[in-house]
Each structure stands twice: as structure tokens, then as C-alpha cells.
Write a structure and sequence with these properties.
This protein is mainly alpha-helical. The protein has a single domain, classed as MFS general substrate transporter like domains (Growth Hormone, Chain: A), CATH 1.20.1250.20. It is built from 22 helices and two strands. The chain has a two-stranded antiparallel ribbon. Strand 1 and strand 2 form a beta hairpin. Helix 14 packs antiparallel against helix 19. The chain is globular, with a radius of gyration of 23 Å. The termini are close together. The N terminus is likely disordered. It binds beta-D-glucopyranose (BGC). Beta-D-glucopyranose (BGC) binds next to helix 8, helix 15 and helix 20.
Length: 524
């Protein structure tokens, strides 16, 4: 409580001097959420302040912040490649001439999913590293397990080496999925933060698509060699990029923070203004203690962050993505690689659309829109199963086969294939427009600086652990609930995610990270 009021004072004091502070009161009054309670309205000597902000932002040069973002998102590109890698590598490993490396079905399933376990562990490691070593060094560190992971796969003599390689590249993916959103959020200013933050997911899906496309021509070994290239480039480029001003100021490295801002904002703005604003909330803060989780300014964003990650995964995205290949094949896309490329391209295109519009539409509206599309399309997909597989229990019509999920359906469905293709395509589009990029963005925006490592770690852990559960348990769920029951369940969870967004997620569009922090501090 003591700490709470001190931070608040610090932030309010900064409003008087720094234009980024001007809209905090707006956020509190406009965007208070029914479930989280109403934030206290704050009196602001308002009128001319937005123009001060505009003046500041009009002098900012974005070139270097784009460059630093480009260097950082080579990390998510690598993590997308790791996710996409198993899809072309598994068929090629199943045909391997070396019996010690030839994967059985159950081994192939572990080869695919062990990445998510490594990434969940990466969430814990990343949460620790990002606060201790800083954002930049943590990101550079990721190159090591990426490259070692891929090299272990390249030099594998047995299946266990393949697993270790996947585990290591998964670990790197987990750390990356935490560090990169935080790095980008902390170097960007409020006008471009949504767009730059959405580039994380854009590069993830580009990496997935890249692996699918390269997998059409390369075998699993050369594909692994290719996968180790982006982390090396990332390592080289990041060496020339600055640490984030927020991390530097939290370490009282004022001169380095000003230099970082000079690089990121160009020479025309008064860097001290932004420095003072960040500092006002950063220098008052001590290390986060467990007892502080009783404080609404900590537990409310923590609850939102973890829940948004939970909902991203229980939407069923990973189940639908794996299943998409089969569905497209059923609809006479004879070549499953081509089907994967179509799925990947839909994701890349609509994630790019989301990145372009998010700073104008805001996060909430896209989340709600995306959740409705996903709920409707998952419901239609369930209906397709119901119609394609008549008969009691439906699950009796599901037989095991060699298809990517190990599931294939009997003939009745062929005539309805168009319905399946349409609903899967719509689902993936819906995800790409909101629930793909925005949870990662929101995670990087809503935590107070000193809780950012621990809380983001919990989010990443939740996300990857749920991804593991869904991909591993999806088969059993289909048998237990029948296929249509399973997709209606996903439809229901998508509707719940819409409700959660409306009730709990604050709009962070156009706000500085300090304004967002101040908003949560005023909640009771
Ligand atoms: C999710 C992954 C998913 C990927 C697909 C990411 O945002 O966290 O679980 O596989 O998007 O596009």
C-alpha cells in the first residue's frame, strides 16, 4: 500500500512535465471495466496537452525503432520456424533410411509436442532472465539454444537426440515469446506500439509458413540447418541495438537511457521529457514481493494476462491448425504441403491486416470481433461433423489413419468438404485478426515495470502448457466428446473469451506504458 501511493505520486508528478502523461485520466474514465471496478477520475489541466503530445510525437523519427524491432522479431521468426518445422520434418523422418532415426507414430507425436514443454520451461527462464540480464541480453541469449537445438537435430544419431534438439529449440522459443514483446513494447512509443507489437505474431506465422514452404523442397536435416540461420542474424543485429530505456532507468543508468532514446527517437525531440516520465514510475519501485499480489494494481493485470493466454489456447487454434491439413486434403487438395501453405498464408495475410489497423481500431474491438468469428466458425465446423457423421455417438465413424492428426473421416463428409474448408479458413482468419497477435501485445503492455518479468513468465508458462495439453489431449477429447462436441466446446470457450474481453480487458490503444500502469494503480 505504501509502495502503491508512492508510485502514484511519482506518476502524477510526471504529468506536469511530460506530455505522455496527459491522457491517463481519459483512459481511467473511458475504459474502466465493470468487473475490475472504476478507476478514480483524475483532474487534468487538459486543453492544450494533447497538442503538446502531438508536437512531441511529430518530431519523433521512427526509422531506428523500426530497425530495432526488425532485429528483435527475427526471434519470433525463429520460433515460428520451430513450430512449423515438425509438419514437413515428421513425414521425412518417418521415411528415414536410418532405422535409429525413423519415427513411429507415438514418437512423431512427441517430436511435435515436446517443443511446447521446452517453451513452457522457457517462460520460467525468460521471466528470470529478462529482469536480471535485461531485455537485450536475454534476447541475444536465445540464439544459443536455438542454434544448439537445431545442430543437435542435424547431428542426431538416435531419436533421443531429436527430442533434445526439439526441447532446446522449444526452450529458446519460450524465452523469445516472453522477451521480444517486452523489448518492443518498451522501445516503441504509444502511436506505433500496437503495430510493432503485432509484428511479433506476424513473424511467428511467417516463420511457420517459411518452414512449410522450405519443407516442400528440403529434407529434415537441411531444414534444420536453415532454421539456425535467423537466430544467428538476430544475434548479430541485436549486438548493435540498444537496451530498452525502461530497463536502463530501472537500474539507474540515466545516461545510457538517454543515449538509447536518442537512438530510438532521433535527434529532434527532448529525450529528457520521456526519460522523466519513465523514471517517475521506475525509480520509486522496489523488487516485487509475493505479499504484493494482494494489491489490485498487481493481481488485476496478472489475472488479465494469464487468462488471456489461457483463452488463446483453449480457443482450439492449435487443434484446428493441425486438423486443417486433413480438412483441406479431404476437399481435394491432394497435396498436404500445399494445404499447409494455404493455412499459413491466410494467417500471414490477416495478421498483417491486424498489425496495420490495430493502432486505429484498438485492441478490444479486434479481440471481440475475432472471438465472434472464431466462435461462429468453430460452431459451423462442429455442425459439419454432425452432418457428415450421422449416427449415434458419431465417434464410431472416426477411424485412425496416417493423416497428420491420426484421424480421418469416412466418405459421407466428402460432399460437405466445402463447409469444412470455409469454417476452418474463417477460424484461422479470425484468430489472425485478434486472438493471435493481441494476447502477446497485451501481455507486454499491462504489467508494471517491476512485475514485468515474473508476470510475463507466468503468462508464457500458461500459454505453452495449455498448448501442450490441447495438442496432446485433442485426440482423446474427440473420442470422449465426439468430434462435433469438441468443436462446439471450442466455440463455447471462444464466446467466453469475448465475454472476458468485454468485462476485463482495458483498452490500451494510444497510451504510454506509464499511463497503463497508473490506470491499474488507481483501481480498487
Ligand atoms: C500461439 C501458438 C500458435 C500460433 C499459430 C501463437 O500466437 O501462441 O500457440 O501455434 O500463434 O499462429
Amino acid at each position: 500500500m505504501v509502495c502503491f501511493s508512492r508510485v502514484k505520486l511519482g506518476t502524477e508528478a510526471a504529468w506536469a512535465t511530460f506530455p505522455f502523461g496527459v491522457r491517463t485520466g481519459e483512459m481511467a474514465s473511458e475504459e474502466s471495466s465493470p468487473l475490475l471496478g472504476t478507476a478514480a477520475e483524475v483532474e487534468l489541466p487538459a486543453a492544450e496537452r494533447p497538442s503538446q503530445l502531438d508536437v512531441y510525437l511529430s518530431k519523433v523519427q521512427n526509422r531506428n525503432v523500426y530497425l530495432a524491432t526488425f532485429a528483435a522479431v527475427l526471434g519470433p521468426l525463429s520460433f515460428g520456424f520451430v513450430l512449423g518445422y515438425s509438419s514437413p520434418a515428421i513425414p521425412s523422418l518417418k521415411r528415414s533410411g536410418n532405422p535409429a532415426l525413423r519415427l513411429e507414430d507415438s514418437q512423431a507425436s512427441w517430436f511435435g509436442s515436446v517443443v511446447t514443454l521446452g517453451a513452457a520451461a522457457g517462460g520460467i527462464l525468460g521471466g528470470y532472465l529478462v529482469d536480471k540480464a535485461g531485455r537485450k541480453l536475454s534476447l541475444m541469449f536465445c540464439a544459443v539454444p536455438y542454434v544448439f537445438g537445431f545442430l543437435t537435430i542435424v547431428s542426431a544419431q538416435n531419436v533421443w537426440m531429436l527430442y533434445v534438439g526439439r526441447l532446446l529449440s522449444g526452450l529458446a522459443s519460450g524465452v523469445t515469446s516472453l522477451v521480444v514483446p517486452v523489448y518492443i513494447s518498451e522501445i516503441a512509443h504509444s502511436k506505433v506500439r500496437g503495430m510493432l507489437g503485432s509484428c511479433v505474431q506476424l513473424m511467428v506465422v511467417t516463420g511457420i509458413l517459411g518452414a512449410y514452404m522450405a519443407g516442400m523442397g528440403l529434407g529434415w536435416r537441411w531444414l534444420a540447418v536453415l532454421g539456425s540461420v535467423p537466430p544467428c542474424i538476430m544475434l548479430g543485429l541485436m549486438a548493435f541495438m540498444p537496451e530498452t530505456p525502461r530497463f536502463l532507468l530501472s537500474r539507474n543508468q540515466q545516461a545510457e537511457a538517454v543515449a538509447a532514446l536518442q537512438f530510438l527517437r532521433g535527434p529532434l525531440v527532448e529525450h529528457e521529457w520521456e526519460c522523466r516520465e519513465i523514471q517517475a514510475s521506475a525509480h520509486e519501485q522496489q523488487e516485487l514481493s509475493l505479499a504484493e499480489f494482494k494489491n489490485p494494481s498487481i493481481y488485476k493485470p496478472f489475472f488479465i494476462g494469464v487468462t488471456i493466454m489461457f483463452f488463446q489456447q483453449v480457443s482450439g487454434i492449435n487443434a484446428i491448425m493441425f486438423y486443417a491439413e486433413t480438412i483441406f486434403e479431404e476437399a481435394n487438395f491432394k497435396n498436404s504441403s500445399a494445404a499447409s501453405v494455404i493455412v499459413g498464408s491466410i494467417q500471414v495475410f490477416f495478421t498483417a491486416v491486424a498489425a496495420l489497423i490495430i493502432d486505429r481500431t484498438g485492441r478490444k474491438i479486434l479481440l471481440v470481433f475475432s472471438g465472434f468469428i472464431m466462435a461462429a466458425s468453430a460452431a459451423v465446423f462442429g455442425m459439419y461433423f454432425k452432418m457428415a457423421l450421422p449416427g449415434p455417438g458419431n465417434s464410431s465413424h472416426v477411424k485412425w489413419s496416417d493423416s497428420p492428426l491420426g484421424l480421418a473421416l469416412v466418405e459421407e463428409e466428402h460432399s460437405l468438404a466445402w463447409l469444412a474448408v470455409l469454417s476452418v479458413g474463417l477460424f484461422i482468419m479470425g484468430f489472425a485478426l485478434g486472438w493471435g497477435p493481441i494476447p502477446w501485445l497485451v501481455m507486454s503492455e499491462i504489467f508494471p515495470l517491476r512485475a514485468r518479468g515474473v508476470a510475463s513468465g507466468a503468462c508464457v508458462l500458461t500459454n505453452w502448457f495449455m498448448a501442450f495439453l490441447i495438442t496432446k489431449e485433442f485426440h482423446d477429447l474427440m473420442v470422449l466428446l465426439t468430434p462435433y462436441g469438441t468443436f462446439w466446446l471450442f466455440s463455447g470457450t471462444c464466446l467466453l473469451s469475448v465475454l472476458f474481453t468485454i468485462l476485463c480487458v482495458p483498452e490500451t490503444k494510444g497510451k504510454s506504458l506509464e499511463e497503463i500502469e497508473a490506470y491499474f494503480q488507481r483501481l480498487r
